[in-house]
# Entry
Amino acid sequence: MAALYEGFTLCGLVPTQNASDSPIQGIELDGDSDHAVVTDSTRSVTLYKVSDQKPLGSWTVKQGQLLTCPAVCNFQTKEYVVVSDNKVIRVWKDEDLNIDKAFKATVSADVWRVHSAPGGEPVVLFQRGAVRLLDSLLSAPQQPIEDVLSEEEVIRWSTNIVAEKQHFVLFTTEQKGEHFLYVQRLNPNTLQKYRLEREDSGAPPLSFSASLRDKHINLLYLYPNGCVYQSVVAVRGPVELEGVQTLPRSLRLRLPVGEGKLGAASAVALDEAHVAVVGMPHPSARTGKDFLCIWNTNFQTLQAGKEMVGRIHGPVWCYLGKLFVPHGKALSVIPYECQKSSLASALGKLRHAGIAVSKSSVAVPSWNSLLHGDQPQGPAKIVDTRKSKLSRKSQSATALNVDQVLELIKTGPVEEVQREVEALVSRGDAQDLQLSVGQLACHLVARSQAETAFYTPGALAQLVQTQCLCHSVCPDLLLLALEHKDYFLCQLCLQLFPDIPEVVTCACLKTFISVPDGDVEMVSLEPDSVSFMEGLVAAGDRGGQQNGFSPPLFEEDSCDAHHQPKPPQHQDKKNPTLQLEACPVGLHKAVLLNEVLQTAYSDNFLLPHLKDLNAQQVILFLQYLQFVYLKFSQDVYTQTPGLRSPTMTQIIDWLCLLLDAHFTVLVMAPDAKGLLSNLESFVKSQVKLFSELGKIEGSLQELHKMKLSKDISQYSIEVIELF
Amino acid sequence: MGEFKVHRVRFFDYMPTAIRAMAFNAHTEKLALGRMDGSVEIFNFADHYFQEKVIPGKDSRSIEALCWVGGRLFSAGLNGEITEYDLENLRPKYSLDAYGGPIWTITSNSQGAHLAIGCEDGTVKLFEVLEESIQFERNLDRQKGRIISLSWHPSGAQIAAGMMDMIRVFDVPTGHAVQRLLVDRGFGGSKSRETVVWSVVFLSDCTIISGDSAGKVQVWDGHTGTLVKTHLVTKWDVLALSVSKDESSVVVGTSEGTVIQFQFIAPTLQQQDKEWVRTRTFKNHTHDVRALAEIETAIVSGGMDTQLVVRPLLEKFDERSYASGLRKIHFPHRNLVSCAKKAGLLLFQFPGQLELWRLGESDGHGKPGDSLPLKRKPEKLLHLKRKGEDHICCSALSSCGGWLAYSTMSSVRLYRLQTDNNDISITKVPKLPKVLRSAHQLCFSSDSSKLFAASSQSSVLIIALSQSECKYVHTLKPKSGSRQPIHLMTNSVDGKWLATANSDCEIHVYNVQKLKLHCIVPVYGSCPSAIGIHPTTNNLINVHADQQIFEYSIVEKQYTDWSRKLQKQGLHNLWLDRDTPVTHVTFNPNNPEQILLHDMHMFCIIDQSLPLPDQKTQFYNQMTLRSLSGQERPSHLHAFKICKTFQDLLSVSLLDDQSLVMVERPLLSITSQLPAPVRQKKFAT
# Structure
């Protein structure tokens, strides 16, 4: 998991005349980890103590001069280096008050950037691609500087990296629409040139970020169409001097870009699994692109998001657990945290093993099927093929491809869209589906959100049933289904999506509880779950108790007697079985609640959202949970294998969570009193059972011991036989 | 093979005493072990940790510390005496009072020229080591408070002394204290208690490492007297410290029974600066670890729980071998039980007394695995307390049950036993021959007409016994001139042969009738741990500490064919891998093919008529054989029939009525008699 914490403003920004330019040229680290050197786009350099949000020093060049490269700190000498007017290198120290009085040297060619990294000397990258160590340059400032790049080639981005005492300068260039990456090694100096693959749109990359991991330089770059690619350059590889190689790349993320292309956006790698992206729309927020999001590239899931007020200017810096984002009129510092992610934590609480087995084909988009072409085999798939045969008959030549269907979704009438999507889904094979289903669903949902009249429940249900969708791919789907009271789709989503956020689960729960029974009973739901619920309700007075629970719940022990007055539903307490049989909610409502019970969740995240329920809803849900619990513990109830059903632990967990979330409310509510006292007696009976078991444990262990040591007498005469 | 009736005896309340001190001689690879009762044991680590010698204790002697100077062994104790041991005669050579009150520690400098002792009165006394004795040289500056621990700087110029609440560093030439290192007291309630610096080591780079009663291991800079690092390792005491030869590792023993290793290494890779880092914790003891030695490849530890543990350092081994296994030595490698085969009596030897028991009887018959009903219970006939301060070092019971003898360091006593039905009378034989002053081993001839007593320089005295008198007959002397003590002695049933084994690994066979040396068995590199002479063939079976078995024909003076075959084929690896030596060999007179052996964990009958197992054969095959049918069985038989039903065996013997006597001493009952260990908080207790 990753999280963004509450940020703070480091400094205000002065908007530039040219709207596309960032008001900040660069942010660099000082020797002190809490210091940041901020260079604005014109004339001044400011040193901040980040945690105090306080400037420690500021240096400005004379009017008429211009800083052309961000100031860096020379970590070896603790001096600052900046370039003004492309050619003048200035070096000064903390104590120097006036930058103009500090050391300066004019060099013979235009400087692009000065780079510095801890553990390495500062290096100067010239606009024509030459690289010099700062020290050697300053010793002979007027030395001739060669041209590395050809005439029309311009540097777009550069950075430096120190790896295993080897110093690298990386820079990308653009020449006639083509992009190149240069990797310059220092000492010994070698230069390697790579060609970046062209993106289909031909658009230039928006941002680059390079990081060192496992002796490889990982280059991450973002295109305006939302694709984040990663390329890997070996630190110690064989150096092939001649030739321009194409740099292999792999797609790490395909971000939703919403309408239009991205303007100022950038992506920066936080660790091997997490990428921070600014200037992207949030998938579940409708408008605007002013978000800072952390995505998990392993699972393609959104981990955290934050809206940034004002226009995002583009670049983002990441130092020591903090993101520096210039936006609007401020530079914000946002601390973040990335934890090692595992699938389990990404998906919330582990699902019940039994369910996992019975639904072995349940899949988040399966990497295997994408990469190795494994055919997902599952019950749903078989259904699909049957359907596909049918539809193939009805469908003849008018089969549309994915793009055409996508176009159709934007404008076409409901019936046609429905038909074409169904046809496409039933026709397509696994690989294609994997990629297109998400797009189809997103477009359908987007259209439905835009036009209230447009809603295609059948098509959506079919898309969900392909099991290629998950919540992160199309986050609005479930909410849309709730909005349209499409309970069947809700049920499907709850069953098949492994990554529903707790807030959505809670929203579902809230809707399900508050919906009138009549509304739900009309809806057709998944038959298996309905039949399970029917069986549970019907399983009546066959007697026999499990788990030591006995209906003399209302034992006439002294403390229980005080719980007067009992609420109306507990009035006939002498006949508890009768009272227990009445399910507090309707059959279909119960089915839906069961689905909620079985979704994956993390306690910590669920708890705050549970508080949104009102007292009546909580009491009703508690009554239902109590009913299911009693059924489970009272009847000689055997779980039918293969049938999806909540487990005892899930029920208990939810009971506990609900009580945790609303305890004070429940204690105060008069109609919850009976319920609470009932629950208390469950607990009592369980505690009693366990204490009894504990007592037996001792004797059982004694038995065990007795068997082992049969004789410890001082003396015996025995007969042995040797062979 | 057959059924045996087994007397399973568990009423021998043998109780080893706690280990108090330890000194390892890296040159000879011998470990000297001092116990609470004042006895000293010598283990030969080059020869499978065999317990070569035992010097019996004495009531007034206590050992606080042991120290080797070359091949000489010194001890000091709270009785205020320094003792040097005569390792050839297994007795103290001399003791001298240091006149400083109880002595807490003794240590020699690396040159072996001086001994330093730490006394209760606050003095460190230096003794010069002379050829035959030691001589007091001088005192270092007297301090307030006792000197608990001492350590010489390897150069010999300085001594670190652990005291109460502090460590002093003395300059040896001047005798002045040059440093005073104050040791903190414990936290909380123990703040008011003085901290005892139980142990201190002085390294050649002038680092001082100390272990104290507040549970700290502290590293000090001896030049400046500053504390470098404190490791709090236990809530209880850190009792013992030992440094490896190359000074790269220090082990400490605590009251919790743990042994913790510290190593002098760089805490992070690529860093040059080394420091003392706590690396490993071993928990092989339940009680105080009082004595420790870090040897080349292992950590040797011992303490209140009486066992000696050799914990190998596995990084020093490339492959699994005998030395790479964990060793726990619980029992002495010699017999404490004598059995009168004809009379069905058992004699148990304790340091302070002897116990004579008559075995029970049963007339029932039963299937294998059954316990038979007892007709008569075992009976303790005699409880004989020793006279004098010296502990009993050996004892013997004649096979007819009519004679009993024991020896201490200072005297031998012989008793005549008479049993009429249930009455027993014991008479001390007066006037033993003057030559019979003490014995390392005693044994009676099988017809009870002679007593053999192993005396100094591997000689054997023969005493003729009769109703009226006992008379010195002859002294048998080995030709080799070995000065080592005899630790094993046995004679043949026909009374003709007597075999002795000494710590030089020599086995001598004497002709008792002709009263002369018959032959010397070719010397084998490992010490014999058990010898026996076959009753019919007069072949000598000797089993060595390295588990090898030899059969030597006394008459033909050469190894038998069976022995050659066994050596040629080699013993099974599982046999060689056992970690306790065979301590007794006996024979079945009714079936001359059978040799009975036992060690602590098993009892074995070797049937010489059966094929020897090769490496592929299933060695422990009794269970398999049991499951096979009568026809299939013969093809699976091999010579070694091993029974592990009986554990923690102290003695196995075969009575004349063909029933076996197994004397077990379960380790659990030893543990249950130990004092309670220090309280350790576990969870919510």
Remarks:
- The mean pLDDT of chain B is 90.
- Residues 410 and 438 of chain B are 6 Å apart (CA to CA).
- Chain B is about 5% helix and 45% strand.
